[in-house]
Amino acid sequence: MSAIQILLLIAAYFGLLLIISYFTGKNDSNVDFFKAGKKSPWYLVAFGMVGASLSGVTFISVPGWIEGSQFSYFQVVLGYMFGYFVVAFVLMPIYYKLNVTSIYEYLLQRFGTISHKTGAFFFFVSRVLGAAFRLFLVAIVLQQFVFDAWNVPFEITVIISILLIWIYTNKGGIKTIVWTDTLQTFFMIVAVILSIYFINESLGWSFSEFLASAELKEYSKILVTDSFLERTHFIKSFVGGMFITICMTGLDQDMMQKNLTCKTLKDAQKNMISFSIVLVVVTFLFMLLGALLFIYAKKHNIAIPLMDGKAKTDLLFPEIALNSGLGITVAITFMLGLIAAAYSSADSALTSLTTSFCVDFLNIEKKPQDHQKSIRKKTHIAMSIMLVIVIIIFKYVLSTNIIDSLLTVAGYTYGPLLGLFAFGIFTKHQIKDRFVWMVALISVFLTAIIGNIPAENLGGYVVGYELLPINGLFTFIGLILIRRK
Length: 485
What we know:
With 485 residues, the chain is mainly α.
């Protein structure tokens, strides 16, 4: 697929998003931008959240991770599913009862201003890094397979990507995103199904023959139970996955903002449960695709693509889809799926960052009515510029698999949120609010020390995704120490 064809496809796709934006953004009010008027159908939100949760990281990085980790990531995914039930039946009733715009308003009502700002700050850092991880992956694919041929700098690629998102979310905000996410999820799922079908066809297999093949067995180990010392042991992965979901969905303004657009709590809970089931199935399809990609690459002597002189397994899927001769259908579906997966998470991240900054830091609801829309629009631009800067920095500092990096960083940034919300929900204590920020920073510092202890100093124990609950526990203990007597 040529660079011109890819650009034409991207232009057509964004043309469709702009049409949706035109109809959903006619009102251009803060109520629609932040809450979609609380009129979103639950099934629409559920389907759209699949794409937002998976993102371009899952679309490319999960298949690219299969060679090194096999199917062990599915242990984390099973933990995700359990976590979604906690979100649906523990956290969401609280948010609906308080009728919040930003979920961190709960911390304001429960503890005070400093707790509110601390929680919002850690979400802000988490979501900036998370969105940047996701968009970085798409940007390097576009750079390698499109813009490098024209000597366009990586920085320009990133600016164009963010500019396109800003354009179609500028007016409608979350109301637009509920609809665009649905379209993007559809494209992403179609892309992975068609990719599996066409690659199997090229190998002369039916889907059932692929599942029964000896080649698949080389990659398909799911359970890691041999030694608890291993980083990917089942218990560590499952518990880590559960807490990752509780934090990255239930304590994350980005994901919860969509749920809060549903008409009732019952609708939002139906959305969460149905979404969790679909997510597990779709993620498993991505892992099957990953195994199929490595099988195909081995049979056709396709080398892992290089980036800055290093093998980058994240780029294997685009290399096979675009350059291995599988045909234009696979190339088109891959590009549509990639763009859809990337922008379904990035657009909602941009909107949620704007919402959180306006509500949690600028107190927009207390500003004069005629200034509120102007404040929101300026904040939206500022958030876009910040994402551009962070993504460009990532190009020069990232070296590991993207999804592994994303989940590892979550252990540091979401831990204080976990501790704060858990203390608020499961105890009745009040705390000395002015010390909360110190507790949160000390918790992150202690977690970083544990996360960097060499395995040989821990008897061979490798710290994994359990860093997140450990971080939350440190925060919880710290809050006990500053509780009011």
